[in-house]
Amino acid sequence: MQDKFSYKNLCGKCNHKPCCINFGSPVLFTDDLEKLKEISKSNNNFVEETMIENKPFKTIRKKENSNTCIFWDEKNTLCSIYEHRPYDCKMFPFDIDWIANEYRWIVYSCNPNSDWAWCEQHLKKLESDPQLDEMIESGFFRLNYKNAYYESPYTVLRPVNRNLSKV
Questions:
Q1: Whole-prediction pTM value?
Q2: Where are the domains of the chain?
């Protein structure tokens, strides 16, 4: 039985496109690149270097002449590397933003007045992953660049707890 307070149930009727076919490319970090290497998907056919505010980041490529992720399977409407997907993808629909001098979790949603308490377990799981620290320490979340995420409505949830990733 699906939890009535899941993201899919809250946003099942949303007409925004999912991250795999509409948003900026996921940023890749050390563990992400290792996971892609394990499945022979880490070469230039799948990964590219992108400059964001003059800082190089590795990202997943989009399909040619498209905003669709190279790993998105249109026929089956699913991610072809789901078990090996990057941390940035695992975070969606959540993200981190630098707000009021601290890192805060945000959630992209057309339903801003939802009761987001159901997501706490998921946020704690994301916070317990050591990759969170690598992403934060890269400075990525403090860059001022804007992409399609920032055009989508979002709700600020709570501060990021970085102590969990050090357990």
A1: 0.80
A2: 18-166
